[in-house]
């Protein structure tokens, strides 16, 4: 199994988005995240389990964002990110958004499959 942390910044900036939303133009500075996601998909296509977690902008101690900063669309507390990575070990291959509830990016798929809920 392989779990690849990624970022929700890949999505278009407007409207509610989920894992099925086309990414459209990805700026050059974010293409490494997309390349890592593509490698995870290749890993899964070879018969292994590959999970991508698109995380919101992290906040909390040591992140440079003590409070949520929704400037990039979605946010996630560092402790919740750790819990989400642990939850990913039981997931089937695919892409899952992980962020706070009721933000620009929907986290419903991840919550439905894992039962996970952000605590902060």
Shape: globular
Strand order of the largest sheet: 1-2-5
Strand content: 15-25%
CATH superfamily: NAD(P)-binding Rossmann-like Domain
Instruction: Write the CATH fold name.
Output: Rossmann fold
**Continuous helix count:** 3
State the name of the first-level CATH class.
Alpha Beta
Secondary structural class: alpha/beta
* Termini separation: 28 Å
Helix content: 25-40%
Number of strands: 5
CATH architecture: 3-Layer(aba) Sandwich
Q: What does the average pLDDT come to?
A: 94
Query: What is the H-and-E element order?
Result: EHEEEHEH
Radius of gyration: 14 Å
Low-pLDDT parts are none
Give the tally of structural domains: 1
Structure explained in plain terms:
The protein is α/β, with parallel strands linked by helices. The chain has one domain: Rossmann fold (3-Layer(aba) Sandwich), CATH 3.40.50.720. About 25% of the residues lie in helices and about 20% in strands. The chain is built from 3 helices and 5 strands. The protein has helices at about 30-45, 80-85, 110-115; strands spanning about 1-5, 50-55, 55-60, 75, 95-100. Strands 1-2-5 form a 3-stranded parallel β-sheet, sandwiched between helices. Strands 3-4 form a two-stranded parallel sheet. It is globular, with a radius of gyration of 14 Å. The mean pLDDT is about 95.
């Amino acid at each position: 199994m392989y779990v690849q942390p990624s970022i929700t910044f890949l999505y278009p900036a407007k409207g509610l988005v989920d894992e099925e939303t086309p990414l459209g133009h990805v700026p050059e500075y974010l293409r490494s995240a997309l390349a890592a996601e593509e490698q995870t998909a290749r890993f899964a296509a070879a018969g292994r389990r590959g999970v991508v977690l698109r995380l919101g902008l992290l906040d909390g101690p040591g992140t440079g964002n003590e409070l949520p900063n929704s400037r990039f669309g979605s946010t996630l507390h560092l402790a919740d990110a750790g819990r989400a990575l642990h939850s990913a070990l039981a997931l089937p291959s695919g892409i899952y958004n992980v962020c706070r509830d009721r933000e620009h990016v929907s986290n419903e798929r991840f919550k439905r499959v894992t039962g996970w809920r952000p605590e902060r």
